[in-house]
Write a sequence for this structure.
């Protein structure tokens, strides 16, 4: 069984609650995350959490089905996408550090074709995960700007 992974850690985010809202708000990722163009839940009214599944589209990677296999409210989640010969696991964790939290993002591939996926997509995947870690920090900073309009209550 082949196992290969990429793990990237963001800079510190001062507000852990905000970091979790940004990280766990997968349906809103296409609004601010340049590596994700579409996130469509299979069951639109179902809550995000263990068992929820999504169609996720990314530039140069196309569409994939991702299912949440572990959801730890306020801490992180894991989801898996399966294709013949390879399973891709994405981890999204908030790690406590002095002054707040850091987002630790990972992608791992397992299965008999993991080596082939790694050979073909490791560079692109590393760039995407690095971009995502930086974008989470930027989104949190943007959300905390004092000149940002307050959300409208309906």
């Amino acid at each position: 069984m082949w196992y290969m992974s990429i793990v990237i850690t963001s800079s510190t985010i001062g507000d852990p609650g905000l970091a979790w809202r940004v990280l766990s708000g997968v349906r809103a990722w296409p609004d601010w995350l340049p590596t994700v163009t579409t996130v469509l839940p299979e069951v639109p009214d179902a809550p995000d959490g263990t068992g929820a599944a999504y169609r996720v589209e990314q530039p140069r990677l196309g569409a994939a089905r991702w299912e949440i296999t572990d959801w730890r409210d306020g801490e992180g989640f894991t989801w898996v996408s399966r294709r013949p010969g390879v399973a891709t696991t994405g981890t999204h964790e908030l790690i406590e550090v002095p002054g707040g939290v850091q987002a630790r993002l990972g992608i791992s591939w397992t299965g008999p074709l993991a080596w082939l996926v790694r050979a073909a997509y490791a560079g692109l995947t590393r760039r995407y995960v690095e971009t995502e870690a930086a974008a989470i920090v930027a989104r949190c900073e943007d959300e905390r700007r004092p000149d940002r309009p307050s959300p409208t209550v309906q």
Notes: The CA atoms of residues 55 and 63 lie 6 Å apart. The chain has three helices and seven strands. The beta strands are 3-9, 38-41, 53-58, 62-72, 76-83, 86-97, 100-110.
